[in-house]
Amino acid sequence: MTRDDEPEHSTNDGGTDNRSDATAHSDENDDSTRSDGRSSESESGGTGSDQSGSGVKSGSETEPDSTSIGTTAADDNGGESADHDGESADHDDGTDRDTDGDTDVGTSGTSFDFGSGSRSRTDVDLDVDEVLADEDDEASTGLFDDLLSGEPIFENKEVLRPSYTPHELPHRKDQINKMATILVSALRGETPSNILIYGKTGTGKTASAKFVSQELESTSQKYDVPCEVEYINCEVTDTQYRVLAQLANKFIEKNDRVIGDRLDDLRDLRSAAADGGGALEGTEFASVADVDERIADLESDREEMEEVPMTGWPTDRVYSTFFDAVDYHERVVVIMLDEIDKLVEKSGDDTLYNLSRMNSELANSRISIMGISNDLKFTDFLDPRVKSSLGEEEIVFPPYDANQLRDILQHRSDIAFKPDALTEDVIPLCAAFAAQEHGDARRALDLLRTAGELAERSQADLVEEAHVRQAQDKIELDRVVEVVRTLPTQSKIVLFSIILLEQNGVHNVNTGEVFNIYKRLCEEIDADVLTQRRVTDLISELDMLGIVNAVVVSKGRYGRTKEISLSVPIDETEAVLLSDSRLGDIEDVQPFVQARFDN
Ligand code: ADP
Ligand code: MG
Q1: 3-state secondary structure string across 527-550
Q2: Beta partners for 394?
Q3: Which residues surround ligand 2, an ion (CB under 5 A)?
Q4: What residues pair up with 549 in beta bridges, in sequence order?
Q5: How many angstroms does the Cα of residue 343 sit away from the middle of ligand 2?
Q6: From 23, 120, 243, 447, which residue has the greatest number of CB atoms within 10 Å?
Protein backbone atom coordinates (compact mmCIF):
# COMPACT_ATOMS: atom_id res chain seq x y z
CA MET A 1 0.00 0.00 0.00
CA THR A 2 1.62 2.89 -1.37
CA ARG A 3 -0.27 5.41 0.56
CA ASP A 4 1.05 4.12 3.79
CA ASP A 5 4.44 4.81 2.58
CA GLU A 6 4.56 7.54 0.05
CA PRO A 7 2.72 10.56 1.32
CA GLU A 8 4.79 10.59 4.41
CA HIS A 9 7.91 11.42 2.57
CA SER A 10 8.25 15.05 3.12
CA THR A 11 7.91 16.88 -0.08
CA ASN A 12 9.50 20.06 1.02
CA ASP A 13 13.05 19.10 1.48
CA GLY A 14 15.79 17.78 -0.62
CA GLY A 15 14.95 20.03 -3.47
CA THR A 16 18.40 21.30 -4.03
CA ASP A 17 19.99 17.98 -3.23
CA ASN A 18 18.33 16.63 -6.27
CA ARG A 19 20.69 18.45 -8.47
CA SER A 20 23.32 15.88 -7.88
CA ASP A 21 20.83 13.11 -8.38
CA ALA A 22 19.99 14.59 -11.66
CA THR A 23 23.23 13.61 -13.22
CA ALA A 24 23.29 10.24 -11.63
CA HIS A 25 19.90 9.44 -12.97
CA SER A 26 20.01 10.75 -16.40
CA ASP A 27 22.97 8.52 -17.05
CA GLU A 28 21.33 5.63 -15.50
CA ASN A 29 18.01 5.73 -17.13
CA ASP A 30 16.82 7.19 -20.31
CA ASP A 31 13.75 5.11 -20.49
CA SER A 32 10.73 7.25 -20.89
CA THR A 33 8.16 4.70 -19.80
CA ARG A 34 8.95 4.65 -16.17
CA SER A 35 6.30 6.90 -14.93
CA ASP A 36 3.37 4.69 -14.12
CA GLY A 37 2.86 3.02 -10.82
CA ARG A 38 6.30 3.89 -9.69
CA SER A 39 5.27 4.60 -6.22
CA SER A 40 3.74 1.23 -5.72
CA GLU A 41 6.93 -0.38 -6.71
CA SER A 42 8.62 -0.07 -3.41
CA GLU A 43 5.73 -1.75 -1.71
CA SER A 44 4.39 -4.41 -3.92
CA GLY A 45 5.87 -4.43 -7.34
CA GLY A 46 9.12 -5.64 -5.98
CA THR A 47 8.29 -9.28 -5.79
CA GLY A 48 8.17 -10.04 -9.45
CA SER A 49 11.45 -8.55 -10.26
CA ASP A 50 13.06 -9.65 -7.05
CA GLN A 51 12.62 -13.03 -8.41
CA SER A 52 14.10 -12.01 -11.64
CA GLY A 53 17.11 -11.07 -9.63
CA SER A 54 17.30 -14.43 -8.04
CA GLY A 55 16.60 -16.06 -11.33
CA VAL A 56 19.58 -14.43 -12.84
CA LYS A 57 21.74 -15.94 -10.20
CA SER A 58 20.28 -19.25 -9.52
CA GLY A 59 19.39 -20.09 -13.03
CA SER A 60 22.96 -20.15 -14.03
CA GLU A 61 23.48 -23.02 -11.69
CA THR A 62 21.50 -25.32 -13.85
CA GLU A 63 21.11 -24.82 -17.52
CA PRO A 64 21.94 -21.74 -19.49
CA ASP A 65 19.23 -21.63 -22.07
CA SER A 66 16.40 -22.20 -19.74
CA THR A 67 17.93 -19.56 -17.57
CA SER A 68 17.82 -17.09 -20.30
CA ILE A 69 14.15 -17.78 -20.73
CA GLY A 70 13.53 -17.53 -17.05
CA THR A 71 15.37 -14.31 -16.75
CA THR A 72 13.72 -12.68 -19.64
CA ALA A 73 10.27 -13.70 -18.64
CA ALA A 74 10.77 -12.45 -15.17
CA ASP A 75 12.17 -9.19 -16.37
CA ASP A 76 9.19 -8.74 -18.54
CA ASN A 77 6.91 -9.39 -15.68
CA GLY A 78 8.72 -6.89 -13.63
CA GLY A 79 8.36 -4.33 -16.34
CA GLU A 80 4.75 -4.96 -17.04
CA SER A 81 3.50 -5.13 -13.54
CA ALA A 82 3.51 -1.38 -13.66
CA ASP A 83 6.59 -0.78 -11.69
CA HIS A 84 9.97 0.12 -12.84
CA ASP A 85 11.81 -2.62 -11.11
CA GLY A 86 12.01 -4.37 -14.35
CA GLU A 87 13.54 -1.32 -15.87
CA SER A 88 16.04 -0.92 -13.16
CA ALA A 89 16.95 -4.48 -13.70
CA ASP A 90 17.37 -3.65 -17.31
CA HIS A 91 19.79 -0.91 -16.92
CA ASP A 92 21.63 -2.49 -14.08
CA ASP A 93 22.17 -5.40 -16.31
CA GLY A 94 22.80 -3.28 -19.29
CA THR A 95 26.51 -3.75 -19.31
CA ASP A 96 26.16 -7.46 -19.39
CA ARG A 97 24.00 -7.42 -22.42
CA ASP A 98 26.73 -7.34 -24.96
CA THR A 99 28.06 -10.58 -23.70
CA ASP A 100 24.84 -12.33 -24.24
CA GLY A 101 26.25 -14.35 -27.01
CA ASP A 102 27.71 -16.34 -24.19
CA THR A 103 24.47 -17.97 -23.37
CA ASP A 104 25.17 -20.49 -26.11
CA VAL A 105 27.51 -22.15 -23.70
CA GLY A 106 26.15 -25.56 -22.96
CA THR A 107 23.54 -27.38 -24.88
CA SER A 108 20.60 -25.62 -26.22
CA GLY A 109 17.69 -27.70 -25.08
CA THR A 110 15.14 -25.30 -26.38
CA SER A 111 14.57 -23.01 -29.27
CA PHE A 112 13.36 -20.12 -27.17
CA ASP A 113 15.78 -17.35 -26.95
CA PHE A 114 14.53 -13.95 -25.99
CA GLY A 115 17.90 -12.53 -26.57
CA SER A 116 18.17 -10.59 -23.39
CA GLY A 117 19.39 -13.07 -20.87
CA SER A 118 21.31 -10.81 -18.63
CA ARG A 119 24.19 -12.86 -17.47
CA SER A 120 27.78 -12.08 -17.72
CA ARG A 121 30.36 -14.32 -19.21
CA THR A 122 31.93 -15.08 -15.88
CA ASP A 123 28.73 -16.41 -14.47
CA VAL A 124 28.28 -18.76 -17.31
CA ASP A 125 31.86 -19.89 -17.36
CA LEU A 126 31.85 -20.61 -13.70
CA ASP A 127 28.76 -22.64 -13.98
CA VAL A 128 29.65 -24.90 -16.81
CA ASP A 129 30.64 -27.71 -14.49
CA GLU A 130 27.41 -27.53 -12.67
CA VAL A 131 25.57 -27.39 -15.91
CA LEU A 132 27.13 -30.61 -17.03
CA ALA A 133 26.52 -32.22 -13.70
CA ASP A 134 22.91 -31.24 -13.77
CA GLU A 135 22.24 -32.23 -17.30
CA ASP A 136 20.18 -35.23 -16.29
CA ASP A 137 17.75 -33.07 -14.39
CA GLU A 138 17.31 -30.77 -17.30
CA ALA A 139 13.88 -31.97 -18.24
CA SER A 140 12.47 -31.55 -14.77
CA THR A 141 13.87 -28.05 -14.28
CA GLY A 142 11.15 -25.54 -15.05
CA LEU A 143 11.01 -21.83 -15.38
CA PHE A 144 10.29 -21.26 -11.74
CA ASP A 145 12.65 -23.84 -10.33
CA ASP A 146 15.46 -21.68 -11.52
CA LEU A 147 13.99 -18.58 -10.09
CA LEU A 148 13.29 -20.14 -6.75
CA SER A 149 16.60 -21.68 -5.94
CA GLY A 150 19.61 -20.04 -4.41
CA GLU A 151 19.29 -16.39 -3.51
CA PRO A 152 22.62 -15.14 -2.34
CA ILE A 153 21.45 -11.90 -0.77
CA PHE A 154 18.08 -12.10 0.89
CA GLU A 155 16.96 -14.66 3.38
CA ASN A 156 13.55 -13.10 3.91
CA LYS A 157 12.90 -9.79 2.30
CA GLU A 158 9.41 -9.41 3.78
CA VAL A 159 11.09 -8.50 7.02
CA LEU A 160 12.21 -5.22 5.49
CA ARG A 161 8.77 -4.22 4.28
CA PRO A 162 6.59 -1.78 6.18
CA SER A 163 3.85 -4.38 6.51
CA TYR A 164 6.05 -6.51 8.75
CA THR A 165 5.53 -5.99 12.47
CA PRO A 166 8.81 -6.61 14.22
CA HIS A 167 8.76 -8.50 17.50
CA GLU A 168 11.53 -6.41 18.85
CA LEU A 169 11.57 -2.64 18.73
CA PRO A 170 14.90 -1.28 19.90
CA HIS A 171 14.83 2.23 21.39
CA ARG A 172 11.09 2.23 21.94
CA LYS A 173 11.10 0.60 25.34
CA ASP A 174 10.00 3.72 27.20
CA GLN A 175 7.11 4.44 24.88
CA ILE A 176 6.00 0.82 24.82
CA ASN A 177 6.16 0.54 28.59
CA LYS A 178 4.17 3.69 28.98
CA MET A 179 1.46 2.40 26.68
CA ALA A 180 1.41 -0.90 28.54
CA THR A 181 1.17 0.81 31.92
CA ILE A 182 -1.88 2.69 30.77
CA LEU A 183 -3.55 -0.14 28.91
CA VAL A 184 -3.09 -2.74 31.62
CA SER A 185 -6.28 -1.42 33.26
CA ALA A 186 -8.15 -3.01 30.39
CA LEU A 187 -6.99 -6.41 31.65
CA ARG A 188 -8.36 -5.56 35.05
CA GLY A 189 -11.73 -4.76 33.57
CA GLU A 190 -11.25 -1.02 34.04
CA THR A 191 -11.33 1.65 31.38
CA PRO A 192 -7.84 2.80 30.38
CA SER A 193 -7.24 6.51 29.88
CA ASN A 194 -7.35 7.69 26.31
CA ILE A 195 -3.91 8.06 24.80
CA LEU A 196 -2.57 10.39 22.18
CA ILE A 197 0.65 9.43 20.46
CA TYR A 198 2.69 11.95 18.52
CA GLY A 199 5.76 11.69 16.40
CA LYS A 200 7.08 12.27 12.95
CA THR A 201 6.66 9.70 10.28
CA GLY A 202 8.87 6.64 10.60
CA THR A 203 9.43 6.95 14.33
CA GLY A 204 7.85 3.59 15.08
CA LYS A 205 4.41 4.69 16.25
CA THR A 206 2.39 2.21 14.24
CA ALA A 207 4.82 -0.64 14.85
CA SER A 208 4.83 0.01 18.61
CA ALA A 209 1.06 0.37 18.81
CA LYS A 210 0.52 -2.86 16.91
CA PHE A 211 3.04 -4.65 19.04
CA VAL A 212 1.33 -3.49 22.21
CA SER A 213 -2.09 -4.41 20.89
CA GLN A 214 -0.95 -7.93 20.01
CA GLU A 215 0.47 -8.35 23.49
CA LEU A 216 -2.66 -6.98 25.06
CA GLU A 217 -4.93 -9.32 23.16
CA SER A 218 -2.81 -12.37 23.75
CA THR A 219 -2.63 -11.62 27.48
CA SER A 220 -6.36 -11.09 27.61
CA GLN A 221 -6.86 -14.50 26.05
CA LYS A 222 -4.42 -16.05 28.43
CA TYR A 223 -6.30 -14.75 31.46
CA ASP A 224 -9.66 -14.98 29.77
CA VAL A 225 -10.59 -11.35 30.30
CA PRO A 226 -12.78 -9.69 27.72
CA CYS A 227 -10.48 -7.10 26.22
CA GLU A 228 -10.31 -6.33 22.53
CA VAL A 229 -8.30 -4.00 20.33
CA GLU A 230 -9.54 -2.57 17.07
CA TYR A 231 -7.04 -0.93 14.76
CA ILE A 232 -8.18 1.55 12.15
CA ASN A 233 -5.97 3.35 9.69
CA CYS A 234 -7.71 6.68 9.26
CA GLU A 235 -5.77 7.52 6.18
CA VAL A 236 -7.81 4.84 4.45
CA THR A 237 -10.91 4.96 6.60
CA ASP A 238 -11.26 8.69 6.58
CA THR A 239 -14.86 9.65 7.30
CA GLN A 240 -17.03 9.27 10.36
CA TYR A 241 -19.37 6.98 8.43
CA ARG A 242 -16.55 4.66 7.44
CA VAL A 243 -14.93 4.59 10.84
CA LEU A 244 -18.20 3.78 12.58
CA ALA A 245 -19.25 1.31 9.90
CA GLN A 246 -15.95 -0.52 10.09
CA LEU A 247 -16.15 -0.69 13.87
CA ALA A 248 -19.80 -1.76 13.81
CA ASN A 249 -19.13 -4.54 11.34
CA LYS A 250 -16.14 -5.82 13.24
CA PHE A 251 -18.15 -6.08 16.43
CA ILE A 252 -21.10 -7.61 14.65
CA GLU A 253 -18.78 -10.26 13.31
CA LYS A 254 -17.32 -10.88 16.74
CA ASN A 255 -20.74 -11.02 18.35
CA ASP A 256 -21.85 -13.43 15.71
CA ARG A 257 -19.01 -15.73 16.63
CA VAL A 258 -19.78 -15.44 20.33
CA ILE A 259 -23.45 -16.18 19.68
CA GLY A 260 -22.54 -19.11 17.44
CA ASP A 261 -20.38 -20.68 20.17
CA ARG A 262 -23.03 -20.11 22.77
CA LEU A 263 -25.70 -21.66 20.58
CA ASP A 264 -23.57 -24.74 19.99
CA ASP A 265 -23.18 -25.17 23.74
CA LEU A 266 -26.88 -24.67 24.38
CA ARG A 267 -27.91 -27.13 21.70
CA ASP A 268 -25.55 -29.73 23.14
CA LEU A 269 -26.98 -29.06 26.55
CA ARG A 270 -30.47 -29.30 25.21
CA SER A 271 -29.99 -32.67 23.57
CA ALA A 272 -28.25 -33.99 26.68
CA ALA A 273 -31.18 -32.77 28.77
CA ALA A 274 -33.69 -34.27 26.34
CA ASP A 275 -31.96 -37.63 26.75
CA GLY A 276 -32.83 -37.45 30.41
CA GLY A 277 -30.33 -37.55 33.25
CA GLY A 278 -29.37 -34.45 35.15
CA ALA A 279 -27.82 -32.46 32.35
CA LEU A 280 -29.38 -29.23 33.54
CA GLU A 281 -28.29 -29.68 37.11
CA GLY A 282 -25.98 -26.94 38.24
CA THR A 283 -26.81 -24.78 35.19
CA GLU A 284 -28.84 -21.62 35.17
CA PHE A 285 -31.68 -23.45 33.44
CA ALA A 286 -34.52 -25.03 35.32
CA SER A 287 -36.03 -26.79 32.33
CA VAL A 288 -35.54 -27.67 28.71
CA ALA A 289 -38.06 -24.97 27.89
CA ASP A 290 -35.74 -22.41 29.49
CA VAL A 291 -32.94 -23.57 27.27
CA ASP A 292 -35.19 -23.33 24.25
CA GLU A 293 -36.15 -19.85 25.20
CA ARG A 294 -32.52 -18.79 25.48
CA ILE A 295 -31.75 -20.35 22.13
CA ALA A 296 -34.62 -18.45 20.56
CA ASP A 297 -33.37 -15.20 22.14
CA LEU A 298 -29.88 -15.66 20.78
CA GLU A 299 -31.18 -16.53 17.35
CA SER A 300 -33.24 -13.39 17.25
CA ASP A 301 -30.27 -11.32 18.46
CA ARG A 302 -28.34 -12.74 15.61
CA GLU A 303 -31.07 -11.88 13.11
CA GLU A 304 -31.26 -8.33 14.33
CA MET A 305 -27.60 -7.60 13.83
CA GLU A 306 -27.52 -6.16 10.40
CA GLU A 307 -24.21 -5.35 8.80
CA VAL A 308 -23.69 -1.71 7.93
CA PRO A 309 -23.39 -1.15 4.18
CA MET A 310 -20.38 0.84 2.98
CA THR A 311 -22.62 3.80 2.16
CA GLY A 312 -26.22 4.81 2.35
CA TRP A 313 -27.33 4.77 5.97
CA PRO A 314 -27.86 7.93 7.99
CA THR A 315 -24.88 8.40 10.28
CA ASP A 316 -26.88 8.09 13.48
CA ARG A 317 -28.12 4.71 12.42
CA VAL A 318 -24.53 3.62 11.84
CA TYR A 319 -23.59 5.02 15.21
CA SER A 320 -26.37 3.24 17.06
CA THR A 321 -25.60 -0.02 15.27
CA PHE A 322 -22.02 0.28 16.41
CA PHE A 323 -23.14 1.24 19.89
CA ASP A 324 -25.41 -1.80 20.23
CA ALA A 325 -22.82 -4.12 18.78
CA VAL A 326 -20.06 -3.03 21.10
CA ASP A 327 -22.37 -3.08 24.11
CA TYR A 328 -23.71 -6.53 23.34
CA HIS A 329 -21.65 -8.01 26.13
CA GLU A 330 -19.18 -6.97 28.77
CA ARG A 331 -15.75 -6.02 27.48
CA VAL A 332 -13.15 -3.31 27.34
CA VAL A 333 -12.37 -2.15 23.83
CA VAL A 334 -9.31 -0.19 22.83
CA ILE A 335 -9.85 1.63 19.56
CA MET A 336 -6.62 2.58 17.85
CA LEU A 337 -7.05 5.38 15.38
CA ASP A 338 -3.83 5.57 13.43
CA GLU A 339 -3.18 8.68 11.33
CA ILE A 340 -5.93 10.32 13.32
CA ASP A 341 -4.84 13.75 12.03
CA LYS A 342 -5.90 12.71 8.53
CA LEU A 343 -9.37 11.88 9.78
CA VAL A 344 -9.73 15.23 11.51
CA GLU A 345 -8.34 17.07 8.52
CA LYS A 346 -10.76 15.37 6.15
CA SER A 347 -13.86 15.01 8.26
CA GLY A 348 -13.58 17.16 11.35
CA ASP A 349 -13.77 15.93 14.92
CA ASP A 350 -17.33 14.55 15.07
CA THR A 351 -16.14 10.96 15.15
CA LEU A 352 -13.84 11.66 18.06
CA TYR A 353 -16.53 13.62 19.84
CA ASN A 354 -19.01 10.76 19.51
CA LEU A 355 -16.52 8.10 20.50
CA SER A 356 -15.18 10.01 23.46
CA ARG A 357 -18.56 10.47 25.10
CA MET A 358 -19.78 6.91 24.57
CA ASN A 359 -18.62 5.54 27.90
CA SER A 360 -21.20 7.49 29.82
CA GLU A 361 -23.92 5.69 27.89
CA LEU A 362 -22.56 2.19 27.45
CA ALA A 363 -24.08 -0.32 29.86
CA ASN A 364 -21.87 -3.37 29.50
CA SER A 365 -18.74 -2.33 27.74
CA ARG A 366 -16.17 0.46 27.91
CA ILE A 367 -14.10 1.97 25.18
CA SER A 368 -10.77 3.65 25.26
CA ILE A 369 -9.27 5.57 22.37
CA MET A 370 -5.68 5.58 21.31
CA GLY A 371 -5.03 8.22 18.67
CA ILE A 372 -1.82 8.25 16.68
CA SER A 373 -0.75 11.38 14.84
CA ASN A 374 2.14 12.49 12.67
CA ASP A 375 1.10 16.06 13.10
CA LEU A 376 2.04 17.55 16.42
CA LYS A 377 -0.42 20.38 16.15
CA PHE A 378 -3.55 18.63 15.00
CA THR A 379 -5.28 18.99 18.38
CA ASP A 380 -5.53 22.72 17.67
CA PHE A 381 -8.40 21.82 15.37
CA LEU A 382 -10.29 19.88 17.99
CA ASP A 383 -13.26 20.88 20.08
CA PRO A 384 -11.78 21.60 23.55
CA ARG A 385 -13.82 18.80 25.12
CA VAL A 386 -12.54 16.32 22.59
CA LYS A 387 -9.05 17.62 23.02
CA SER A 388 -8.98 17.17 26.76
CA SER A 389 -10.65 13.79 26.66
CA LEU A 390 -8.44 12.42 23.94
CA GLY A 391 -5.24 13.77 25.40
CA GLU A 392 -5.62 12.29 28.89
CA GLU A 393 -2.26 10.69 28.33
CA GLU A 394 0.28 11.77 25.76
CA ILE A 395 3.26 9.85 24.49
CA VAL A 396 5.86 11.38 22.23
CA PHE A 397 7.95 9.40 19.78
CA PRO A 398 11.12 11.39 19.10
CA PRO A 399 13.05 10.92 15.84
CA TYR A 400 15.76 8.29 15.83
CA ASP A 401 19.36 9.33 15.59
CA ALA A 402 21.85 7.57 13.33
CA ASN A 403 23.05 5.20 16.06
CA GLN A 404 19.54 4.12 16.93
CA LEU A 405 18.75 3.59 13.28
CA ARG A 406 21.81 1.38 13.04
CA ASP A 407 20.51 -0.85 15.82
CA ILE A 408 17.12 -1.07 14.19
CA LEU A 409 18.61 -1.97 10.84
CA GLN A 410 20.97 -4.47 12.42
CA HIS A 411 18.12 -6.30 14.11
CA ARG A 412 16.10 -6.49 10.95
CA SER A 413 18.98 -7.29 8.64
CA ASP A 414 19.93 -10.31 10.73
CA ILE A 415 16.67 -11.94 9.71
CA ALA A 416 16.30 -10.35 6.28
CA PHE A 417 19.68 -11.10 4.75
CA LYS A 418 21.82 -14.17 4.31
CA PRO A 419 24.79 -14.22 6.69
CA ASP A 420 27.60 -11.95 5.50
CA ALA A 421 25.56 -10.51 2.65
CA LEU A 422 26.33 -6.92 3.67
CA THR A 423 29.64 -5.15 3.78
CA GLU A 424 30.32 -3.34 7.03
CA ASP A 425 29.59 0.12 5.81
CA VAL A 426 26.12 -0.62 4.42
CA ILE A 427 24.10 -0.30 7.61
CA PRO A 428 25.90 2.80 8.90
CA LEU A 429 25.39 4.51 5.56
CA CYS A 430 21.67 3.66 5.41
CA ALA A 431 21.36 4.93 8.97
CA ALA A 432 23.19 8.14 8.16
CA PHE A 433 21.03 8.88 5.13
CA ALA A 434 17.84 8.21 7.04
CA ALA A 435 18.99 10.25 10.02
CA GLN A 436 19.16 13.23 7.68
CA GLU A 437 15.63 12.40 6.67
CA HIS A 438 14.36 13.38 10.17
CA GLY A 439 15.31 10.02 11.65
CA ASP A 440 12.86 8.06 9.59
CA ALA A 441 13.18 4.32 10.22
CA ARG A 442 10.94 3.59 7.26
CA ARG A 443 13.34 5.39 4.99
CA ALA A 444 16.26 3.50 6.52
CA LEU A 445 14.57 0.17 5.87
CA ASP A 446 13.56 1.18 2.34
CA LEU A 447 17.14 2.09 1.62
CA LEU A 448 18.45 -1.17 2.94
CA ARG A 449 15.91 -3.22 1.03
CA THR A 450 16.40 -1.27 -2.18
CA ALA A 451 20.17 -1.54 -1.87
CA GLY A 452 19.77 -5.29 -1.49
CA GLU A 453 17.53 -5.46 -4.53
CA LEU A 454 19.96 -3.45 -6.61
CA ALA A 455 22.81 -5.70 -5.55
CA GLU A 456 20.74 -8.73 -6.36
CA ARG A 457 19.93 -7.45 -9.80
CA SER A 458 23.46 -6.59 -10.62
CA GLN A 459 24.27 -10.15 -9.63
CA ALA A 460 26.55 -9.10 -6.85
CA ASP A 461 27.09 -11.50 -4.00
CA LEU A 462 27.40 -8.66 -1.54
CA VAL A 463 25.50 -5.49 -0.84
CA GLU A 464 28.00 -2.66 -0.86
CA GLU A 465 28.14 1.02 -0.14
CA ALA A 466 27.63 1.85 -3.82
CA HIS A 467 24.32 0.01 -3.79
CA VAL A 468 23.15 2.14 -0.89
CA ARG A 469 24.03 5.30 -2.80
CA GLN A 470 22.20 4.04 -5.85
CA ALA A 471 19.26 3.17 -3.64
CA GLN A 472 19.25 6.65 -2.16
CA ASP A 473 19.14 8.13 -5.68
CA LYS A 474 16.42 5.77 -6.75
CA ILE A 475 14.21 6.50 -3.75
CA GLU A 476 14.74 10.20 -4.16
CA LEU A 477 13.84 9.94 -7.83
CA ASP A 478 10.77 7.86 -7.00
CA ARG A 479 9.67 10.62 -4.69
CA VAL A 480 10.15 13.27 -7.35
CA VAL A 481 8.32 11.22 -9.94
CA GLU A 482 5.41 10.72 -7.58
CA VAL A 483 5.22 14.42 -6.77
CA VAL A 484 5.36 15.40 -10.44
CA ARG A 485 2.87 12.75 -11.49
CA THR A 486 0.27 14.04 -9.05
CA LEU A 487 0.64 17.73 -9.87
CA PRO A 488 -2.46 19.52 -11.17
CA THR A 489 -2.49 19.99 -14.95
CA GLN A 490 -1.76 23.71 -14.77
CA SER A 491 1.35 23.14 -12.68
CA LYS A 492 2.41 20.45 -15.10
CA ILE A 493 2.17 22.89 -17.98
CA VAL A 494 4.23 25.45 -16.08
CA LEU A 495 6.83 22.85 -15.25
CA PHE A 496 6.89 21.63 -18.83
CA SER A 497 7.56 25.18 -19.99
CA ILE A 498 10.58 25.40 -17.71
CA ILE A 499 11.83 22.07 -18.99
CA LEU A 500 11.47 23.14 -22.61
CA LEU A 501 13.50 26.24 -21.93
CA GLU A 502 16.24 24.33 -20.18
CA GLN A 503 16.36 21.73 -22.91
CA ASN A 504 17.00 24.53 -25.34
CA GLY A 505 19.88 25.78 -23.34
CA VAL A 506 18.06 28.62 -21.62
CA HIS A 507 18.97 28.50 -17.95
CA ASN A 508 17.91 30.66 -15.04
CA VAL A 509 14.78 31.69 -16.84
CA ASN A 510 12.51 34.38 -15.51
CA THR A 511 8.79 34.28 -14.91
CA GLY A 512 8.00 36.21 -18.09
CA GLU A 513 9.82 33.70 -20.26
CA VAL A 514 8.07 30.81 -18.57
CA PHE A 515 4.76 32.55 -18.96
CA ASN A 516 5.18 33.04 -22.70
CA ILE A 517 5.81 29.38 -23.33
CA TYR A 518 3.13 28.41 -20.86
CA LYS A 519 0.58 30.48 -22.75
CA ARG A 520 1.38 28.82 -26.07
CA LEU A 521 1.22 25.37 -24.54
CA CYS A 522 -2.17 26.11 -23.00
CA GLU A 523 -3.52 27.27 -26.32
CA GLU A 524 -2.16 24.17 -27.99
CA ILE A 525 -3.91 21.79 -25.61
CA ASP A 526 -7.01 23.93 -25.05
CA ALA A 527 -6.31 24.52 -21.40
CA ASP A 528 -7.40 27.68 -19.59
CA VAL A 529 -4.69 30.31 -19.57
CA LEU A 530 -4.07 31.61 -16.07
CA THR A 531 -2.79 35.09 -15.37
CA GLN A 532 0.92 35.66 -15.02
CA ARG A 533 0.31 36.30 -11.35
CA ARG A 534 -1.19 32.85 -10.87
CA VAL A 535 1.62 31.30 -12.83
CA THR A 536 4.06 33.02 -10.48
CA ASP A 537 2.20 31.39 -7.59
CA LEU A 538 2.39 28.00 -9.25
CA ILE A 539 6.13 28.47 -9.69
CA SER A 540 6.43 29.21 -5.99
CA GLU A 541 4.55 26.01 -5.23
CA LEU A 542 6.91 24.04 -7.44
CA ASP A 543 9.73 25.66 -5.53
CA MET A 544 8.23 24.57 -2.22
CA LEU A 545 7.92 21.03 -3.53
CA GLY A 546 11.61 21.07 -4.39
CA ILE A 547 10.96 20.61 -8.10
CA VAL A 548 12.32 23.95 -9.19
CA ASN A 549 14.56 26.43 -7.54
CA ALA A 550 13.39 30.02 -7.80
CA VAL A 551 15.65 32.72 -6.46
CA VAL A 552 14.92 36.40 -6.45
CA VAL A 553 17.79 38.33 -7.98
CA SER A 554 18.26 42.03 -8.10
CA LYS A 555 18.70 43.55 -11.54
CA GLY A 556 19.91 46.89 -10.31
CA ARG A 557 17.75 49.66 -11.61
CA TYR A 558 15.62 47.20 -13.57
CA GLY A 559 14.23 45.96 -10.28
CA ARG A 560 14.09 42.41 -9.10
CA THR A 561 13.23 39.26 -10.92
CA LYS A 562 12.95 35.59 -10.22
CA GLU A 563 15.43 33.20 -11.74
CA ILE A 564 14.02 29.76 -12.10
CA SER A 565 15.91 26.54 -12.61
CA LEU A 566 14.98 22.92 -12.50
CA SER A 567 16.00 20.98 -9.37
CA VAL A 568 15.07 17.55 -10.59
CA PRO A 569 16.40 15.21 -13.27
CA ILE A 570 15.18 16.67 -16.52
CA ASP A 571 14.62 13.55 -18.64
CA GLU A 572 12.70 11.60 -16.04
CA THR A 573 10.60 14.60 -15.19
CA GLU A 574 9.79 15.24 -18.82
CA ALA A 575 8.84 11.60 -19.26
CA VAL A 576 6.45 11.80 -16.34
CA LEU A 577 4.88 14.96 -17.73
CA LEU A 578 4.45 13.43 -21.17
CA SER A 579 2.74 10.43 -19.66
CA ASP A 580 -0.09 12.81 -18.78
CA SER A 581 -2.47 12.34 -21.67
CA ARG A 582 -3.01 16.05 -22.18
CA LEU A 583 0.63 17.00 -22.33
CA GLY A 584 1.44 13.84 -24.24
CA ASP A 585 -0.70 15.18 -27.07
CA ILE A 586 1.72 17.98 -27.82
CA GLU A 587 3.71 16.73 -30.71
CA ASP A 588 6.23 19.26 -31.85
CA VAL A 589 7.46 21.49 -29.11
CA GLN A 590 9.97 23.50 -31.08
CA PRO A 591 7.51 26.19 -32.15
CA PHE A 592 6.75 26.88 -28.51
CA VAL A 593 10.31 27.40 -27.59
CA GLN A 594 10.70 29.58 -30.62
CA ALA A 595 7.90 31.67 -29.18
CA ARG A 596 10.18 33.03 -26.57
CA PHE A 597 12.11 34.87 -29.22
CA ASP A 598 8.94 36.22 -30.77
CA ASN A 599 7.95 38.08 -27.64
P1 ADP B 1 5.29 5.60 12.05
O2 ADP B 1 3.99 4.90 12.30
O3 ADP B 1 5.79 6.37 13.21
O4 ADP B 1 5.29 6.41 10.80
P5 ADP B 1 6.24 2.93 11.71
O6 ADP B 1 5.87 2.33 13.00
O7 ADP B 1 5.36 2.59 10.56
O8 ADP B 1 6.40 4.50 11.82
O9 ADP B 1 7.74 2.54 11.38
C10 ADP B 1 8.28 2.64 10.09
C11 ADP B 1 9.08 1.40 9.80
O12 ADP B 1 10.20 1.33 10.65
C13 ADP B 1 8.31 0.12 10.01
O14 ADP B 1 8.72 -0.81 9.06
C15 ADP B 1 8.72 -0.31 11.39
O16 ADP B 1 8.62 -1.69 11.52
C17 ADP B 1 10.15 0.18 11.47
N18 ADP B 1 10.53 0.58 12.81
C19 ADP B 1 10.27 1.76 13.40
N20 ADP B 1 10.81 1.79 14.63
C21 ADP B 1 11.41 0.61 14.81
C22 ADP B 1 12.17 0.03 15.88
N23 ADP B 1 12.38 0.70 17.02
N24 ADP B 1 12.66 -1.20 15.71
C25 ADP B 1 12.45 -1.88 14.56
N26 ADP B 1 11.77 -1.41 13.54
C27 ADP B 1 11.25 -0.17 13.64
MG1 MG C 1 2.28 5.01 11.16
Answers
A1: CCCCCHHHHHHHHHHHHHCCCEEE
A2: 196
A3: 206
A4: 565
A5: 14
A6: 447
